[in-house]
Amino acid sequence: MEIKGSVAVITGGGNGIGEAVAKYFVSNGAKVVIVDMAQANIDRVVAEIKGMGGEVIGVQANVTSEADTARFYQAAIEAFGQVNIVVSCAGIIRDGTMLALDKETGKVSRKMGLDKWQPVIDTNLTGTFLTIRDGAEAMVNGGWKGLLVAISSVNKAGQVGQLNYSSAKVADALLPKIVVGEFLMRGIRNIRCIAIAPGYTATPMVAGMNQDALQALLKDVHLGRLVEPIEIARLIGHAVENEAINATTMEITGGLCYPGGIAK
Amino acid sequence: MKTFSYNDLAYSVEAAGNAWDIVCTRGDGKTAVVAAGVLVGVAEKDVEARARALVRVINPVGIRSIGPDVGHPQRVGDIIIVGPDVGHPNFIYWNKDSASCPKTL
User: Fold this and answer.
1) Domain enclosing residue A230, as ranges
2) pLDDT of A204-240, one tens digit each?
3) Closest-CA distance of chain B to residue A232, Å
4) Cys staple from A139: which of A146, A187, A197, B19, with CB 3.0 to 4.6 Å?
């Protein structure tokens, strides 16, 4: 499958990994649909892509809404006539431990509330499900060849302080095997599904982390720096073109290890 | 170039090779690119309608009506029957006085 001439729908396309993926696809001849919650981010990225000579539309939408999901696919088809690549980058973090203890009494002083749990599950898991589901629907009904890409995370392994995020991302990592199994069962042979599990990546979300904690994490990265969003975009681009890559989750971490040099 | 108004915002549609660019002037007077290189091959006479349709999908405006729940058990036709709260102090029986609002003659 070629990137050139394909139509890519990218949620969370207004910054970070999504923006890098969109610009990489455009520079390789794809048409892109930028989906994001923030209109200002959409306006900036769409203007920059137009400046690159690219073909693009921007749609402000909430990936947790079925109506919004249906709308951005409808817009993609209205503008470009088809959908071939879907990259579900929209994601958030609301970090915190499940319990916090009072130092003096040793009793529970705070619990992770649904205000931290539910938005992360809704955006990172339900949002991915809706994006992949409706992307698959559009491709099947249109008869278009395609690739569906969920974005998992290396923290699918289970990161303390991210019970909500890790729970969603481990589910996102499992999704391609089930989806492709279903495609096989239904005789759908022209649509693939994969997930990408990035390590610590130079995105605005990671830039917002505690910087001391970030530096401590980088000590265990063989590469010695954050993964750049463009490096993730190139991996997704390779997956588009290499049709043997299917029903799998690919990690791109720069060599993330447990402390002491044990590969994670 | 074609122009049209939708939801009190001004849109312009300009040719870009054999495709079209759509630009919106926002409420603050700033312009934003809505779409670039879309509607490939659409003729100039048809482009305004197609651009309007695309803008409507991207920025829908309107009210969604939700019909009556005809499956609801307490109803007569489309009217939902909600039982009276006979324990409320202001509840007035047709043949009794109210405890909190006694009838004055």
Assistant:
1) 7-261
2) 878 777 888 888 889 999 999 999 999 999 999 999 9
3) 25
4) A146
pLDDT for res A264:
63
Number of domains in chain A: 1
Residues of B in Cβ contact (< 8 Å) with A75: 54, 57-58
Q: Chain B contacts of A54, Cβ < 8 Å?
A: 36-37
Structure-block tokens of residue B16: 């870009």
Would you give the distance in Å from CA A120 to the centre of its chain? 13
Residue corresponding to tokens 């939408």: A61
CATH number assigned to the domain comprising residue A125: 3.40.50.720
> Which of B34, B39, B50 has the highest number of chain A CBs within 10 A, making it the mutation to test binding with A?
B34
Residue B95's contacts (CB-CB under 8 Å, 6 or more residues apart) are: none
CA distance B73 to B55: 42
Is there a contact between A127 and A170 (Cβ–Cβ < 8 Å)? no
**C-beta atoms of A57 and B32 within 8 A:** no
A43, A60, A79 member nearest B35 (Cβ): A79
Domain assignment of residue A85, yes or no: yes
Q: What number is the average pLDDT over the span A185-212?
A: 91
